[in-house]
């Protein structure tokens, strides 16, 4: 009998496990407004999920403004301050804690890989009941490039010692799924970050669910089997 490779799951954080997308959107809007950069909120939302540095580079280029390291650093600090003021509003998405608990109890490997830096990601991860110092967690400050580059997911797979080809990336944005494709992992999309099903499928999602609770209901569809049962 041929052994079936164990599926592992690599999770994005914002909009995938915690309901924080719109707090980030508004924080970036505050930061950009303070810098004198007028931009509609919806345009910011379309870029949430990629790295903050790439995000600000693209926005500044699209608005025709000068891109200087000083300005990028200032925007990052303003975003961090504005997000910190809203961070107490962030809660785990429905089913997020239960999904991670199911995988842990079933002996199914999982990791979290986020484009956020540890300074903003840690409180949200801890709200999930996850010990950041013990779990496999990869943040933006631990890799060279963030999404849509594959570095975060490749490092997350390495941390749990599972070949990336045997991993499923779970994310709410097209940037998660583009990074999954570049890493040669399967992609699972969640609607909980505001992207539509068709957008997620075009970016590479082979299954799309409403949120972590919906994914848990259909966990057998994506290879979430207990190793002992096969």
TrEMBL record:
- Domain of life assignment: Bacteria
Name the Pfam families for this protein: Hydrolase
Hydrolase listed as a keyword: yes
Any one GO molecular-function label of the UniProt entry: hydrolase activity
Class in the EC hierarchy, top level? hydrolase
Question: Any idea of its EC number?
Answer: 3.-.-.-
Q: Which Gene3D superfamilies match?
A: HAD superfamily/HAD-like, Putative phosphatase, domain 2
Asked if Disulfide bond is a keyword of the record, the answer is no
Which keywords, in A-to-Z order, does the entry hold? Hydrolase
Instruction: State the protein's name.
Output: HAD family hydrolase
What species was this sequence derived from? Dongia sedimenti
């Amino acid at each position: 009998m041929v052994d079936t490779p164990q599926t592992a799951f690599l999770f994005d954080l914002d909009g995938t496990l915690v309901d924080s997308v719109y707090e980030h959107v508004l924080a970036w809007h505050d930061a950009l407004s303070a810098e004198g950069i007028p931009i509609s909120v919806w345009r910011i939302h379309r870029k949430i999920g990629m790295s903050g540095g790439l995000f600000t580079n693209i926005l500044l280029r699209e608005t025709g403004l000068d891109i200087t390291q000083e300005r990028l650093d200032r925007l990052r600090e303003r975003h961090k301050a504005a997000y910190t003021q809203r961070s107490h509003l962030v809660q785990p998405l429905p089913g997020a804690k239960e999904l991670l608990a199911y995988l842990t109890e079933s002996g199914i490997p999982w990791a979290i890989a986020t484009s956020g830096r540890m300074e903003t990601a840690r409180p949200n991860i801890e709200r999930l009941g996850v010990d950041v110092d013990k779990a496999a967690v990869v943040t933006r400050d631990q890799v060279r490039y963030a999404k849509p580059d594959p570095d975060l997911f490749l490092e997350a797979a390495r941390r749990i010692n599972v070949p990336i080809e045997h991993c499923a990336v779970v994310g709410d944005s097209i940037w998660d799924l583009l990074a999954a494709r570049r890493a040669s992992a399967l992609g699972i999309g969640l609607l909980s970050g505001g992207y539509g099903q068709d957008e997620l499928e075009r970016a590479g999602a082979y299954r799309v669910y409403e949120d972590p609770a919906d994914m848990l209901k259909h966990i057998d569809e994506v290879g979430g089997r207990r190793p002992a049962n096969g």
